[in-house]
Amino acid sequence: MIRDFFKTLVENHKSLAGLMILAALVLMAVFAPLITPYPPKADRTEESALIEENRTDPETLSVDTPSEDIEKSVYTVTTTQKWEKTIEYFPLRARPSREHPLGTNHAGNDLLSQLIMGSRISIFVGLATGLFVIVVSLTLALLAGYLGGVVDDIINFFTNVFLVIPGLPLMIVIGTYIPMRGILPIIVILAFTSWPYPTRLLRSQVLTLKNRDFVVASRVMGERTSFIIFREILPNMISIVMSQFFFVSLSAILSEATLEFIGVGNITVVSWGTILYWAQANGAILRGAWWWFLPPGLLIALTGTAFVLINFGIDEISNPRLRKR
Amino acid sequence: MKHFARKLAMLLFTLLVSMTINFFLPRLIPGDPAQALIGRMEGVEPEKLESIRAAFGLDTQDPLIVQYGKYLLNTMRGDFGISLSRFPMPVSSVIAVAFPWTIGLMGLCTIFGFVIGTTLGIWAAWRRQHKLASFTVGFFTFIRSFPYFWLGLCLIYVFAFKLRVFPLGGAYSIDEVRGSSSWWLSVLKYGALPAFTITLSSIGEWLLMMRNNMINVLAEDYITLAMAKGLPMRRIKYMYAARNAVLPSVTGFAMQFGFIVGGGLITEMVFAYPGMGYMLYQAVNAKDYPLMQAIFLIIAASVLVANFIADIVIMFLDPRVRDGSK
After folding, report:
1. Of A95, A120, B44, B55, which is least surrounded by CB within 10 A?
2. Cβ-based neighbours of A8, under 8 Å, separated by 6 or more
3. How far apart are CA B194 and CA B197, in angstroms?
4. Can you give the pLDDT at residue A208?
5. Do residues A273 and A257 touch, judged by C-beta distance below 8 A?
6. In this structure, how many other beta carbons lie within 10 angstroms of the beta carbon of residue B97?
7. How far is B180 from chain A (nearest CA, A)?
């Protein structure tokens, strides 16, 4: 059943194009460390570590030296260290050149390398959120559709409540309270705000299928509930589940970039959203640095278009009326 | 009437859920939330610490349920506490300045987007084989997958930085006398680019929804019958097909509107447009928690009320809902 679905997906021109773009992007993300010409973050950590070492040193000396001298000595030590380090750096905010096809950013990091490396987090967060949300939504939908009664009422009620609470402002508010370490918090926040819509759609699909003749027939025949759910209902939901998966992944990628852009996400990681954050924080537009803010957005849009194309294909497969006459 | 009462109850309950989220969010942080928040800020004066505690209702020894009750009462009276970044201004007066800008911008853009998108959707479904129609659908699908803020950045770069046709940001010219006719003109000029961003991004949503509904309706038997009867095409297109296809678009308003408002807020941030979105941006960066939470609540309430209005409109448009049968 699943193999059949992918076969039809590949036969449809739109979804094939989408799958190919997505495959290319995923390959880029997987092999990012091999493709990037330079490390995406050049030695910034080493530099700060050096400064901190020097800060702690004078403390031990401070027993009998006057305080002014300490400050002076700290100052000279840190500056010389920093100076030695920056020589090895790339030029800051450089225009595109042969060495750096997309220039460098405010910290002297190669933007092309950041862009390639950034695809890892952006695409991973998107797909992981999509998977997480679909598992949760499908479970809720099956519970609601199959148990019915009070369980259905409760799930349906809360789905409708959370459906209309605007997601982005909620994400921003939650995001500012939760400490952003790593990327797990952002996946949880994205999932928390995007479960209602797929849950509602999947629930109504379960309810429709539950009353179809073939399901009713196997229930009369006394088949086990697990058999009916996994062998009869789920296979018929593949297209709607997949299209919701890509829909959630798309909005997760967009939302993640948005959260990072306004500084709510973890700005220390390298992703498409954080590149845009630093571009905006350094006034890339007013410097005319299109090579800084244009490529990340284009890649986000390309990923989004891949998902939308796949969904167009799925729509046409499941709804023959949408096919070209 | 029963339908109306149910929708109203739903609206009130959803508002209560939003307020409850708002109440418990700061309390979910382990330990003293005020202290935890202070840890994330630098150089906080004691009076600000007190106002944070007061804003969250942490300055009392009341049990949680009493705090919750007081919080609900204060919120309903419009008392959101004191803003930290604009100390000692009350949050409500900070919001009162920003709110009209957002309502004006978002209201106009939503109407433009809906009308243009739906009209294009009708046309794209009617002339489905036409090359231009499939190009339009493809174009807006591509635009739709852009992040709103990035589209805004690109428009600023082209129209404000390179061509210098429009200002870089803000909502009005500071050189004009507020309220004069030239001031109003400057409002239009400053608002054009943000409005264009939001409208352009949201057209795709309405277009695709309308196109798919319309294609489904066009395959119905009564359309075939109407054509067989030899009714004028215009009549079939608008009175038979579009009229029935637009209903799910109005129903889908619920989902879409919240989404577009979210995008609109981000657009305001990019354009430094002094509405709720830009205010939220400033509140987030200044860690002004009371202001931030109040903005979330006001936005949520506005979206919920707009949805409620959409539900009422459907009641008048759709006899099935109006008569209470499903």
Report:
1. A95
2. A317
3. 5
4. 87
5. yes
6. 12
7. 31
**First-last CA distance in chain B:** 15
Is A319 in contact with A8 (CB distance < 8 Å)? no
Name residue, tokens 């399901």: A215
Q: Which amino acid is at A268?
A: T
Using CB atoms within 10 Å of the CB of residue A247, give its burial: 0 to 12 exposed, 13 to 18 middle, 19+ buried.
Answer: buried
Give per-residue burial for A115-142: e unless 16+ CB within 10 Å, then b.
Answer: bbbbbbbbbbbbbbbbebbbebbbebbb
- pLDDT-derived band at B123 (thresholds 50, 70, 90) equals very high
The DSSP result for A46-114, as a single string, is HHHHHHHHHHHHHHHHTTTS-HHHHHHHHHHHHHHHHHHHHHTSPPTTPPP-SS-TT-B-TTS-BHHHH
Instruction: Please state the φ and ψ torsions of residue A203, each to the nearest 5 degrees.
Output: -60, -45
Nearest Cβ partner for B157 among A177, A290, A324: A290
**What is the rounded CA–CA span in Å between residue A180 and residue A195?**
21
Q: Which of B168, B215, B296 sits opposite A173 (nearest CB)?
A: B296
Select the residue from A168, A248, A300 to test the B interface by mutation, using most B Cβ atoms within 10 A.
A168
Largest CA distance in chain B: 80
Residue pairs between chains A and B whose CB atoms are closer than 8 Å: 147
Is residue B90 classed as helix, strand or coil in its secondary structure?
Answer: strand
Specify the 3-state DSSP secondary structure of B82: strand
Q: Is the pTM of this model over 0.80?
A: yes
pLDDT value at residue A85: 43
The DSSP element (H or E) to which B186 belongs, if any, is helix B181-218
CA distance A223 to chain B (A): 32
ipTM: 0.84
- Closest residue of chain B to A265, computed from CA coordinates: B284
Give dist(CA B167, CA A286) in Å, integer.
Answer: 12
Q: pLDDT (tens digit, 9 = 90+) per residue, B75-115?
A: 888 888 888 777 778 889 999 999 999 989 988 998 899 99
**Confidence band of A84 (pLDDT split at 50, 70, 90):** very low
Q: Name which of A164, A168, A250 is nearest B265 (Cβ-Cβ).
A: A168
Instruction: Read off the amino acid at residue A83.
Output: W
Whether B299 and A172 lie within 8 Å, measured CB to CB: no
CB contact under 8 A, A168 and B263: yes
Residue B2: both structure tokens together: 């029963």
- Phi, psi dihedrals of residue B82, rounded to the nearest 5°: -105, 135
CA–CA distance, A80 with A195 (Å, rounded to integer): 53
CA distance B213 to A16: 24
Q: How far is A165 from chain B (nearest CA, A)?
A: 6
Inter-residue contact A304 to A22 (CB < 8 Å) = no
CB contacts, 8 Å: B10 with chain A: 160-161
Q: Do A177 and B144 touch (CB under 8 A)?
A: no
